[in-house]
Amino acid sequence: MTDFLIWYFNLTALQAVEFMFKALLLMILFSLPVIAAYAVFRRFVHAQNHSDSLKTHSEFAETES
């Protein structure tokens, strides 16, 4: 990839490596909020699916009958 950057954009080797490093860093930084949002979403869905476990045994028996 750095060879392409050197050839197409007429960059030096150091500029090409710096560009690749910045691109990788930006991809990581932009993906962190997406990963965090997915983790929060999974925790929310998990809490919704297991909300019955928060009830006492008598409350659960009343809703089942």
Write structural notes for this entry.
The chain has 65 residues and is an all-alpha fold. It has one domain. It has helices at residues 2-8, 13-49, 57-64. Helix 1 (2-8) crosses helix 2 (13-49). 0% of the residues are buried. Keywords: Membrane, Transmembrane, Transmembrane helix. The chain crosses the membrane at residues 20-41.
Compact summary:
The chain has 65 residues and is mainly alpha-helical. The chain has helices at 2-8, 13-49, 57-64. It has one domain (2-64).
Which features characterize this protein?
65 residues; 3 helices; mainly alpha; 0% strand; 80% helix; rod-shaped
The fraction of residues in strands falls at: under 5%
Got a strand count?
A: 0
User: What's the overall average pLDDT, rounded?
Assistant: 81
Helix content: over 70%
Radius of gyration: 25 Å
| Category from helices, strands and their pairing | mainly alpha
Give the number of domains: 1
- How far from one another are the termini? 65 Å
**Main sheet: strands, sense, barrel:** none
Number of helices: 3
Keywords: Membrane, Transmembrane, Transmembrane helix
List strands and helices in order, with pairings.
Blueprint: H1 2-8, H2 13-49, H3 57-64
Helix pairs in contact: 1-2
Keywords: Membrane, Transmembrane, Transmembrane helix
Transmembrane segments: 20-41
